Amino acid sequence: MNKALISYYIKKLSDYLAIKTEMVDHRAVIKEVATGVDRSWIYYSMLMLASLIALLGLLTNSIAVIIGAMLISPLMGPIISSGLAFTIGDLTFARRAFKTIAISVALTILACTVVSFISPLKEQTAEILARVHPNIFDLFVAMLSGIVGAIALCTKRNYLITSTGVAIATAVIPPLSVTGYGLGTGQLMLAMGGFLLFFTNFVAIVLTSDLVFFIFGFRTSHLETVQYSPRKRLLIIAGLLTLISVPLVYTLVADLTKVKEKKRIERVLKLNLNKDLTSRMTSYDYQQHDEKILIRASVNTVKIIDKQSELKMEKELTDALKRPVAVRLEQIIVASGEALKPPKESELMTGGTSPAVKVETSAQIRTRVEQMVIDVQRELTDALAPFPVSDTHLTFGGGEEPLQVSTTLKRDYPVEDDEKLLLARFLERSLELPVTLTVKTVPLLPPLSFDGTGALTPASTATLALIKELPGGRGEFRFILESSSRENTKRLETVKLYLIHEQGVPERSIVIRAAHTATESAGVILRIIRR
């Protein structure tokens, strides 16, 4: 019965599609789509203007400007054309479409790279960051948009309105502008993220439009001449489809991995922190630093969660994620229901006296203070990473005087007042005490040393490893090489080449100049300063 019912509905659907297919003027659609791959100065002018408008919208964080660029861009024409070329097996048509797309992508990225390089606006905005991490929802949007665009093209139903919506939904131009921005500012990972989003959208649109064209009856029979055998044509098209599907699969796998990772973290945290009448987790977030994951969780609790429980959570999370994990708890002490109950009659009869307060010994007080110092240094280390923090001291004032926190930061540029204020507020929230923070800065790196061949020693290359962890990327910093000796010219060049080729530092970010003061060491001094 079920099989018969399914067969009935399949036949009904086939008959319906056959009727709709007969209504499609296949040759007119092919002719119209073919005009979308014609390269002219008007096409490239519109494309360049759209890419620059999108870039300005990204730099100024204006979604309205970005939407305007999407509407202007003519890039959807060649993309839809490539989908139709796959369906009908016209390799000449496919080559024209892909050539147009390749030239369009190259020109767009080049123009945005040049403008980003000379633009005074280089800060990452929310609109830029939203286009460097494609996820599964971006894939679904592109796939559905490709289906809608192909259906509208075949049926001519509300085509102008539909094509406008498809252009906004797929957004192929802004990711290319982000790619140019990343290259122009020396942020290669950001550029790769933007290009991956474009390539993912491109693959999804081609595949789904190809499917729609096939359903609407487009076949090789609509070609006047068939230049290649069906087998050869199928192999070439299958190879191209496999090649461009790589980013699609990568994005899907990466997204599913993130979802599973988040679920595991949430499950372990809730299992350890959600205790009836004792504690409850209110929020959490996590960040990845190289191979280590840092998890911050806020929890309401009636008593302080001890270090042993925190270490137990870290071990469970490490086992679940198969990677090292560090847990930082923000604990907010609250009153439980038991604490709010009225006193018992026996307590009222005795005057409601409470047990004697337990007096801490000097050893216990010292242990508490030492733990507080460790916690403060750990919080500062996480907040200021990758710059090392050391020599943290606490000074307790009398009465209502705030806690004096002093620390030493290895960094080549000073801590601004705003940054210091944010750090102090962060410590106050963590310690639940008023805090006054003093930060002393010392040079980040010791003088670099060289072996007998003139190459950097392993110790020096190890100290330079933190360059890859600089916040915001290497393009946000200036790398100043100094030496008081003229004999170090070759060594300065050696360090410069090492920074460019091994650490990925943009050459324009490296400055070589003579030191203001003589140094005792025969090495080279490297100072890293934020722009």
**Rg computed from alpha carbons, rounded to a whole number of angstroms:** 32 Å
Summed up, the domain count is 4
Which range best describes the helical content: under 10%, 10-25%, 25-40%, 40-55%, 55-70% or over 70%? Answer: 55-70%
Largest sheet: 3 strands, mixed
Shape: globular
Number of strands: 9
Secondary-structure class:
alpha/beta
Tell me what portion of residues adopts beta-strand conformation. 5-15%
Distance linking N and C termini: 73 Å
CATH classification, class level of the largest domain: Mainly Alpha
Q: Within the CATH hierarchy, at the fold level, what is the topology of the largest domain?
A: Glycerol uptake facilitator protein
Poorly predicted runs are: 347-354
Return the string of H and E elements.
Answer: HHHHHHHHHHHHHEEHEHHEEHEHEHEE
Determine the number of helices (DSSP H or I, runs of at least 4 residues). Answer: 19
Average pLDDT figure: 78
Q: Specify the CATH architecture of the largest domain.
A: Up-down Bundle
Q: Walk across the major sheet and give the strand order.
A: 1-2-3
Concise overview:
This protein is of the alpha/beta class and 531 residues long. Helix content is 56%, strand content 13%. It contains 19 helices and 9 strands.
Provide an overview of this structure.
The chain is α/β, with parallel strands linked by helices and 531 residues long. It has four domains: 27-244, Glycerol uptake facilitator protein, CATH 1.20.1080; 257-339, Cation efflux protein, cytoplasmic domain (Alpha-Beta Plaits, 2-Layer Sandwich); 370-442, GMP Synthetase, Chain A, domain 3 (2-Layer Sandwich), CATH 3.30.300.30; 458-530. The chain is 56% helix and 13% strand. The strands form three sheets. It has a three-stranded mixed sheet, with helices on one face. Strands 4-5-6 form a three-stranded mixed sheet, covered by helices on one side. Strands 8-7-9 form a three-stranded mixed sheet, covered by helices on one side. Strand 2, helix 14 and strand 3 form a beta-alpha-beta unit. Helix 5 (76-88) packs antiparallel against helix 6 (91-118). The N and C termini lie far apart (73 Å). Mean pLDDT is 78; it is low at 347-354.
